[in-house]
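Collaborator request log, item 7. Partner lab (contact: R.S.) asked for a structural prediction of Transcriptional antiterminator, BglG family to inform their binding assays.
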Amino acid sequence: MRVLRIFNNNVVLAATGEGGEVVVTGRGVGFQTKPGDVIDDAKIVKVFYPADGRDPDHLAEMLAFIPAEHIRLVIEAMGKAGLSAEQQGKITLVIALADHLSGAIRRAVEGTSISYPLKAEVQQLYGEEYQQAVRLVDILNQSISTAISPEEATAFTLHLVNASFTSGDLTYTYQMTGLIEQMIEIVAQGTDSSTLDEISIARFITHLRYLFVRIAQHRQLSGETSPVTTAIMEAYPEAVACARLLAELTELRLGEPLTEDEVSYLALHVARLHGNT
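Returned to partner:
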């Protein structure tokens, strides 16, 4: 790889042999180099391949504003905490976590704190990511002199969830969190909430999360009405009515109508939650 642009001693934009552009981090990777120089492989800590049409130049610039030590700590902690290779390779997630770490360390040193009112909802809706976030905080605290608050795990969780979407900020994730809660409340109306088993709820939440990803990426399930869709619509009329209400709510909150295929799968989950399948 050859240097295209130097942002600081630890972050450079580089050209690959295949003609692509990547962001390279590493202590001293940009020190005493100039555009066109071959990058010393021994200095490379991480190579990021920008996706989703993101501008690698802009991403590298954002990364350059974060202390190199915090970037290194986050990259190492992500690996130790068991995050997937895909998660570790997302530069936007590294930027978000490292930037948040910088703020958390500053708050810890100053003795200030920040309240996360969504903590209970985050723990319930995003259990897997929350456990990853808790591990991240524990691992990071082993490497810094002033430990950050365990409460920061809530914010880390939201960043992990947000990495599923194309949006670079947490707005969509906050919106999604509130929408999931509202949809569960609607499904629970008219039925004994104690009969809603946790496994079905977990499956429903997982389905909604993938649905919201499809909506954000404009890739909803669609096509000619399939036999499965027809069968669901005919077998569970009450669940279909509830699903259509959920679809109207989703369109109102996210601004995009659901396809018939998406409505039918919502209906199937509603039927399961109501104990009809």
